[in-house]
Amino acid sequence: MQIANPIYDVVFKYLLDDNRIAKLIISAIIGEEIEELDFRPTEYRSDIERKSLTVYRLDFTAKIKTTDGYKQVIIEIQKAKFPTDIMRFRKYLAEQYASNENIYKVEEPEESYARALPIISIYLLGHTLVHTDAPVIKVARKYYNVISGEVIKEKEEFIESLTHDSFIIQIPYLKDKRQSELLMLLSVFDQSTIKKDTHILNIKEEDFPEKYQPVIRRLQKAIAEPKLRKTMDVEDEILKELENLERIIAKKEKIIGEMKETVEENEKAIEENEKAIEEKDKTLEEKDKRIEELERKLKVKH
After folding, report:
1. Which stretches of 81-126 are assigned E, i.e. beta strand?
2. CA nearest 121: which of 177, 74, 86, 56?
3. Strand ranges inside the chain, DSSP E
4. What does pTM read for this prediction?
5. Which of 58-67, 91-100, 150-159 has the lowest mean pLDDT?
């Protein structure tokens, strides 16, 4: 079975534009049941859809079912192509913490006050991390009493508002990983299933559980969308240019590094030369003093 490649931004957005599928995928990643999921409010959506050329970002508000009711959260999904995109991640996260859109009002009999919505970040990386080949990583917050080492189980509003959980998916390490339902679902990003056309992935429909069939059917449908195929071509052109720029930057950084090393070596050589001159001058001074002493001795003898 052939499906459109969701590594492309236009296909990724097409996939998550289906609310049912977006809930299905995000619920599977975070391991919690999402009751309601919405794109950010319309007046804010125009800002978040101004994607950079290397990072694609989608923001949602979600109502998540918990053991004692429900909780409201912001879910931020970022998909990146290069390791150098980390500064953009930080910038977008800072925007989330600063945005008034992420605050809700709590009404109580005696007072009303504002609270910040918790944030959950999901990062889909087109590159790999340095020290781990885990395909899916969860960064979960825990509170500890530093003195006793005891885990503090009760959540604090102050802490929840200033910290967040994250999920990191290393797309290159999804290759041949099918040990769980989540990995089976995420295999729709497995780039090793490409044959010739990078726009198309080749999968086995029977490998997917019934509940994930809507995901692959929507990606199959995307192949027949001429506008999507055309946009993928444009993305290919942009990515090629960006990769060339990355190579040029890397080459220039190498040259700068070598020049810096040469300058440092020259500075070291100059310092050593100056030190040698100082030592020579000192030796000459000592020699002159010795000559003067010898001359005085000769005069005394005469």
Report:
1. 103-107, 112-116, 119-125
2. 74
3. 2-4, 34-39, 55-66, 69-80, 103-107, 112-116, 119-125, 136-139, 143-144, 151-152, 165-170, 200-202
4. 0.71
5. 91-100
